[in-house]
Amino acid sequence: MTPGRPPLQPYGRANLSRMTVFDLRNIRVRSGEEHREAVEVAISPIELGGERYVAVPEKVPAELSVTRASTGIVLGLQLSVRLHGPCVRCLTDAVVDESMRLSEYQATRPDTDQLTTPYLTDDRLDLSAWARDALILALPDKILCRADCAGLCPICGESLNDTDSAAHEHEQASDPRWAKLSELKLEE
Questions:
Q1: Spatial separation of the C-alpha atoms in residues 88 and 48, rounded to whole Å
Q2: Residue 169 class from Cβ within 10 Å (0-12 exposed, 13-18 middle, 19+ buried)?
């Protein structure tokens, strides 16, 4: 956790104000029809590796589509998210832009878990959880300020992005635990 930042609350009851839920009972579509609607989806902060990443803005515009099939409904969500947080190498600000096209299927009479979506409960679609889960899966392995980030010097902690790497040198101090080995004379 970064000093000076408030601790993250787990996603759930404590973040109900940050949830975007769409009530599917408000739309009427027949088999083969599609309903499209512009929505704003609240994205809760994400904590990765002890660091906090925040969507800016917190509520992102998105397009929701609901298509009725003969055996269920196909849900689609299209959105772009800009995430701000620290670079994993040098800790300066990093920005990640992700554009996502998501889809889920919910069968009318599901006989297995594969035919249901975990984001739909009692005809209420949790758009925030759906978008947040997809965003976490879409993020790169390492969030960097730039692709060629050199990170921090392991000895002094200075950012190697701001200095010439050839000019940034430290005297190599020998480890005193190995001093006796220098006295060792090996016979050839």
A1: 10
A2: exposed
Q: What is the DSSP string of 153-182?
A: -TTT--BTTSS-TTT-----PPPGGGHHHH
For residue 7, give both structure tokens. 């601790």
Residue 65 and residue 34: Cα distance in Å, rounded?
7
Task: Tell whether pTM > 0.85.
Answer: no
Q: Which long-range contacts (CB under 8 A, 24 or more apart) does 21-29 make?
A: 21/124, 21/125, 21/126, 21/127, 21/128, 22/64, 22/124, 22/125, 22/127, 23/123, 23/124, 23/125, 24/66, 24/73, 24/120, 24/123, 24/124, 24/125, 25/123, 27/66, 29/66, 29/67, 29/68, 29/73
The two three-digit tokens of residue 165, written as one number: 């790497």
DSSP states of 45-82: -EEETTEEEEESSSEEEEEEEEEE-SSEEEEEEEEEEE
pLDDT < 70 stretches in the chain = 1-18, 165, 173, 188
